[in-house]
Write a structure and sequence with these properties.
alpha/beta; UDP-N-acetylmuramoyl-L-alanine:D-glutamate ligase; 3 domains; six-stranded mixed beta sheet; globular
Length: 403
Amino acid sequence: MSEARETAPLRGRAIWLAGIGGAGMSAYGLIAKAWGADVSGWDKAETPYLAGVRAAGIPVEIAPEPTLPGPKLERYISTAFAGRVEGRPRADLLAELVSLRKSIVVSGAHGKTTTSGMIAFCLDRLGLDPAFIVGGEIAQLGGNARAGSGWLVVEGDESDRSVAALRPEIAVLLNVDLDHHTTYASLAEVERLFEDWLAEVPKVVRAEELEPVDLPLALPGEHNRLNAAAALAALELAGVERAAAERVIVEYRGASRRFEARGEARGVRVFDDYAHHPAEVAATLAAARERVGEGRLAVFFQPHLYSRTRYLAREFARSLAAADAVCVAEIYAAREDPVAGVSGKLVIDALAETRPGMPLAWTPALEDGVRFLAGWVRAGDLVFTIGAGDVDRAGPMLLEALA
C-alpha cells in the first residue's frame, strides 16, 4: 500500500452526512475528512459538536429539511433520520472506518464513552497517537474524534444493531442490558447480537469477568473502577504494558456529561450526567454518595424516549429512590413520536409509591425543576441533572438562580 493510501485512504471520495451534528456522525465526518474525503452534511438544528466540524472545514447546512446532494455524493444517514432521508445507514461508514485501521471497539449497554475514552487517553498519553471516535467531548483529548496514526478506538452501538457490522482486532463487551425496547423484543435477543458479533472478533475482553481496579481514579464509583479494568485489559491486548497504562489512567477525568462538575453556588455543588437507563442512574447516584459527605443529594431527572419510560418507569423509580429529593421533567422525545398516556409523571408516580414522603416534584419544563431545586437545596448539598436530553441546560440555570 502506498504512503498516500495509508495516510489518506478515503481520498477521492465525496461523502454527505445526514445528522452531522450528532456525537457519532460528527466524529465520522471529522475522521473521513482527515483521511482524505470531501465531506459535507446537514442537520435540523445546531449542536455543540458542529463547532469542531466547521473548524475542520466541513460545510454544514442547518434547515428543517436537507437540500439533498447529487448522485455523485455518498449519502450516510444517522439513526435519527432513518426513513426520512434516502441513503445508506451510518453503520456502513463506521464499518469502513474500522476496517481501515487496527481497531478496538467498545460496546455494551452502559459505560461505552467512559471506557473508550480511557483507552484513547492512555494511548495518547503514552505517545501512541490513537485515532478515536467516542460519544462525548473529552477535554483532555480535544474533542470527540481524532485521526491519529495508531489504534482506532471506537464505540460500538447496539441501539440500531450497528455494532454487528464492525470487525475490529479487539472487542470490549462491558455489559448486556435491555435498553432499546423498539429494537429488541427481549434481553435474550440482545445477548444473541453480542455473542454473534464477538464470534467474529479475534481478541475479546468481557468486563463482567473482571475485578474492578484498585487504583486512585479521578472518576468515582464502582462502575468506573470496572470500566477501568476493561480498558486496561484491552490495552494489554493491544501491546501496552499494564504498569504504564495504570500510571496514566488515573489522570483521566472523563467526557462531557459524565459526572461532569458544572459549578458551585451558595455552597451547593452541581453536576451533570448522561445516565438514561435505570442501571446507569443507580451507578451515578452510588458514585455521588461517595462525594456528598454530610450533605444531601438532589436529582433533576429527564426521561429519554417514550418507549424506555413506558417500560422502565418503575425501575427508574427504584434507582432514583437513592437520592434525597427528586424532580422529573417531561420526556425528551429524541427520535420517537409521543405515546398516549406516557409522560415523565409515570416516574414520579412510581417514586411516590417506592418512597412515600420523599420530596418529589413533577416539573415538566426545565424552569419548573430549577425553581423547585432552588427552593429546596442548602449549603453542602449536591445536585445532579441526569438524562440524555437537554436537561444539562438546567445546571447553569440553577447556578444562576442560587447566585
